[in-house]
Amino acid sequence: MSxxxxxxxxxxxxxxxxxxxxxxxxxxxTGLPRWDAGADNVRLRLVQRLPDQTRxxxxxxxxxxxxxxxxxxxxxxxxxxxxxxxxPIDLDIAEWSAQVxxxxxxxxxxxxxxxxxxxxxxxxxxxxxxxxALFPNHQSFAPGDWNMGMTTWPVPPGxxxxxxxxWSVGGVAHELAAEGVRCPE
Length: 185
Known about the structure:
alpha+beta, 5 helices, 39% strand, Immunoglobulin-like
């Protein structure tokens, strides 16, 4: 096998792809739709955040009306991830994706937003609040750890998509999908 082909085939062989049923329900606290999926000792919950809910949240943290509209024009989901396993997991959300028909979208990363806010002259207070509100770009989860934060997807309100998350355990890649996730309108 050629070295270049080996570099392509090896990660595919090592990837543990999980296909688990996605459960849709109404969130207990917000009454908004949510989607739960899990595989390989990882659980994912995605909860809709209404555009007006997102606007109010960021207006309250010092962003201008124009800036909060920029955020709210994306699909914003409250993202909660749990490591129910006995070993640490690592993730980089740059490896996550959303499938809409034949098109795959990457999430809008915190680093991209921060660059936009810096270029727009947004103050440190709102930028820090934004950083704390979003799901981190990179994270390691010890056994039993969980975290939550917003993820932003560059698709219009009302879009239905399959969200694929990826993580690794000891260098072995894993993936699960939450299917039929609807962006709030």
